[in-house]
Amino acid sequence: MKTRLLATGLALIAMAAGLPGTATAAPRPGAERCDRPAPQPANTSALHHITSGGRDRTYQLHLPDGYRDRRAWPVVLAFHGRGNTGAGTEEFSALSTLPAILVYPNGVVGTGEGNRQAWQGAPYAAPGVDDVAFTRDLLDALETSLCVDPRRVYATGKSNGGGFAALLACEAADRIAAIAPVAGAFYPTGRECRPSRPVPVIGFHGTADVTIPYDGDADRGLPPIRDWTEQWAARDRCRISLPRKEIRPDITISRWIGCARGAEVEHVAVAGGGHTWPGADSYSGGGRTTQTIEAHELIWRFFRAHRLPGAPSTGRVSR
């Protein structure tokens, strides 16, 4: 039943929204270094270390089934929520089933109770930790050690991790092709968001989320989710706001198109949904988890339609 509903929902989304065109870009230095042996077998996950900002940082790396060094693979960065881990996010998100290199970074322990890992931009993040620089360092390392397509690097995340994905769109749009926050915690950072290019955005949020309320939380500086999404549509200079489309009783899709440089903004509202990852089969947060859609599949449908702009590649095959 779940598979049939998912197929129907995806078909309706596709009918309502033709996939936008994509642009190509020149590979970064290091993208051609695809003759090095992979650090682990295909279709496996393993913990890795990297030094950034004078700290030992870690990330969970999953290589897709069929990974070969003769193809330039897309990369999806998936950032955990406060107090979670990369491995925990991999478990509930199903992102590692995608035909891409999946990277699940681990945050630094922040402030407040419980010694919980967090990401830059939140009021409880570790002071002085530059996670944007860490992300750039991580991408540099991945492009050196793996065969990746630097035109197709994407960021998603849940809660605090979703908020950090949005921060990357603001401050690292030269490296991140598109973002997909899930139950995003969009705390004010005190810095204006001025991305170097229009960034495609798809977001997911439950209307009954009590952790990061859909209607916002003024006491914590959290904006209403609809307002935050419309701000991105304005930032991307989208000219057309399409009518909201209810594809299932609990799923409503909003889209903004005609945006600058091929960008697009999409919002998936989950009626009655909690602080959860849509489609998760294990615990991902408090409240109801919809099984009508699979977030990882909609995220991939969106991501694969967008690439960083620029000159054509030198001919390496990409998926």
From TrEMBL:
Provide the protein's localization: Secreted
Signal peptide bounds: 1-25
Print the keywords alphabetically.
Carbohydrate metabolism, Hydrolase, Polysaccharide degradation, Secreted, Signal, Xylan degradation
What Gene3D superfamilies does the record point to?
Answer: alpha/beta hydrolase
Region Disordered: list its residue ranges: 22-51
Q: GO terms for molecular function, please?
A: hydrolase activity
Query: Per the annotation, which location comes first and is thus the protein's main one?
Result: secreted
InterPro entries referenced in this protein's UniProt entry, alphabetically: AB_hydrolase_fold (IPR029058), Esterase-like (IPR000801), FaeB/C/D (IPR043595)
Domain of life of the source: Bacteria
Any Pfam family hit: Esterase
Q: What is this protein called?
A: Alpha/beta hydrolase family esterase
